[in-house]
Each structure stands twice: as C-alpha cells, then as structure tokens.
Amino acid sequence: MRNKLIALSVSLLLSGSLLAQGYQFTEVKKNPITPVKNQANSGTCWSYSAMGFLESELIRMGKGEHDLSEMYNVRRNYKDKGDKYVRLHGMLNFAQGGSFADVIETIDEYGLMPEEAYKGLNYGLDKNNHGEVEGVLGSIVKSVVENNNKTLTPVWGKGFDAVLDAYFGEVPANFTYNGKTYTPQAWAKELGLTASNYVSLTSFTHQPFYKGFALEIPDNWRWSKSYNLPIDEMMKTIDYALENGYTVAWASDVSEIGFTRDGLAVMPDETSAENVGSDQAHWLGLSQRDKDAALKKKVSEGPVKEKVITQEMRQLAYDNYQTTDDHGMLIYGIAKDQNGTKYYMVKNSWGEAGKYKGLWYASEAFVKYKTMSVVIHKDAIPSDINKKIEF
Questions:
Q1: What is the per-residue pLDDT for 55?
Q2: pLDDT for residue 168 is more than 70
Q3: Cβ-contact 382, 240 below 8 angstroms
Q4: What is the mean predicted confidence (pLDDT) over 94-123?
Q5: Among the residues of the chain, which ranges form H helices?
Q6: What is the pLDDT of residues 41-74, one digit of tens each?
Q7: Residue pair 353/373 in contact by the 8 Å Cβ criterion
Q8: What's the sign of the alpha-carbon dihedral 372, 248, 23, 231?
Q9: Which residues touch 258 (CB under 8 Å, ≥6 apart)?
Q10: How confident is the model at residue 283 (pLDDT cuts 50, 70, 90)?
C-alpha cells in the first residue's frame, strides 16, 4: 500500500508539473527588432507596426538602430484622409485606423522623421490619446460635406490643418539628427528607404490569384493594392522572408478566443475531444459563452489541438465578417513549442504587456487563418512565386 501511495504521489506530481509547464518556446529563427512601443489610447497600430518594420529593415540594411516617429506619419495621413473624405462627399471611412500603405506608399512623398524630432504629443499628455482629436477632425469634415451652401469655402482645409497643428504640433520644414540637418524626404533617402522596394500580399479567392487588387476593408481608404497568392504560397513567402533575415508587417484579426492578452495567438478546434473533453453531450449543452470560457481556459493551460486551415475557410470567414482587419503587428521570427508546433514571433505595440513583455507567439494555424495582408521587401519573395505575380 505504501508503494502504491508513493507511486500515486509521484504520478500526481508529474501531472501537476506538466500542467504547470504551459507553453515552452524554442527559437528557430529570430531577426532583429527595435524595442516594443506603446500606441496607448490611439488606433494607430498600422503606423507603429509599419514603422517597426522599417526600423528592422534599417538594421538589416546595416543602417543602425533608429526610432522613427509614428505620429509624423499619422498627422500626414489624417490630412490626406480628410481631403479624400470631402472629395467623396463623406463616403469614406474617417477614423483612427489605417493600413500599412499609409506608411509604405508615402515614404517618397512625405519622408520620415525621428521620434526625437516629432513626438506628436502637443495636448498636455505623455501618451497618445486620440479620441478627442478624432472627434474634432471628424466633425469638421462632416460639417463641410453636410453644409447647405451648395459649395465649399476655400478655407476649410486651413481650419483642419490648424486642428492638426494644435494636437500634433506643426511639422518642421527640417530637423537636426546626429549633427546633420535634414528634410523628412532627404532623411528617408539617405536611409535608403523607398516605397518601390516593398509589396503587399494577401490571399482570398474572390479575386484572381497573382494579380493586384484593393483589399476591401474600411481602413484601406487609399485603395492600395495587395497581390493575391494562394494561402500556401503566402505562408511559404512569409517563411522564406524570415529565414532570409527579413521581417514581415502583419495585418490580422485579433478578435478570436485564441488571441489572448498574455502573448498567445492560436486557433483552438472547438470540436476536438482533446479540447472540449470526452463528454460531448455536456459540451453541446453549454451556452456559447460557457464554451468560449472553457476554450480560453484550455488555451491558457498549454498547447491545444488546433483547426486545420484551408483556403475555403479563410474566404468564408472573410465573407461572413468573422475575419476583420483589427490590428497591425510585426512578425520577426519563428519558434516551436514543446510539441514541435510552429509559431511566429510577433512584436506588438501595446507596451510591455503580457507574459512576454509585449511580444506574442502566433501559431502557424492562426497566421494562416487570420492574416488579412502582409508587407515584405520585394526581394523576400521566393523566385518561383515572384515569377507568377503580375506586378
């Protein structure tokens, strides 16, 4: 009896140890990134992730580490968005959100500024808070569109600019950085960053593969093109880029149960007995809220059985609004968990949040299912895939 009790105790200890292990990640490939930043109370992940992407590009190019100003680009894009909103009689999404194109496609025209030269915090706070400025700017363009004068005044744009200057600060014609004076355009040129070096990729079946199209999401207000690849080729391209020293700007849906606030992004299979338990009748009798809670708990405990993702599943989720353009992040590496499952290492812009201090681990299934688009350097596309794309 004593030996049985000892054996049982050892078994329980081992079981508890395994449960306590949670997720154990081993790095496979890790590319350089700059420190995690905090977008705070602003819907500007698109600028933070795209600037993080460019900062990693500069490291890869041997240009050193630089802290690029996200708010310089945000201020410029608010102006462009306001102009387009008025030209389209208000038939455009005017909000804090945006796309990677708002950064990448404007490099040549607007250039870049370092954070030390333009912080965009001119309203008495030390962190972004854009609720008020969005409301004020939105009320201006809506009033312009809805006015009863039948024609627009020539000065509404000046009023709009004045609000931008009040909240973000006036944009200097030039700035001094590391002992030299630049315009934003001259600095971007010296850094070797140009829009033509980058390409946006996506994967959906409602448009032809290998051709470019404007991804139909509200925040793509520039109507910028992404090139359409079959999902397996898009995933191959992501892997090829990472393995060859490039990082990947990643636009994704983060509203899933498996995207936790503790640094994980997985796609649990709610039909798997491994996840829901052996009592299927009990599981089926639960409310959706209780099912979600049970799956969240399961995800938090350690690796779970995930869905097998297909091209058809991606399209259906997009068509049904189950996959939406929620958040921009930066994929910078590849890792594996204790079961050998592949994950992508992700830099977020929510400050040093979660278990991994602002970094996330997104499973291959999650990225395959929930990616809206990615931006990469054009040289990071495998040659066999590159030949198929009709640029």
A1: 98
A2: yes
A3: yes
A4: 97
A5: 2-21, 45-60, 70-87, 101-104, 107-110, 131-146, 156-168, 184-191, 231-243, 273-276, 280-284, 288-301, 311-319, 364-370, 383-386
A6: 999 999 999 999 999 999 999 999 999 999 999 9
A7: no
A8: positive
A9: 264, 265, 266, 267, 268, 295, 299, 363, 366
A10: low
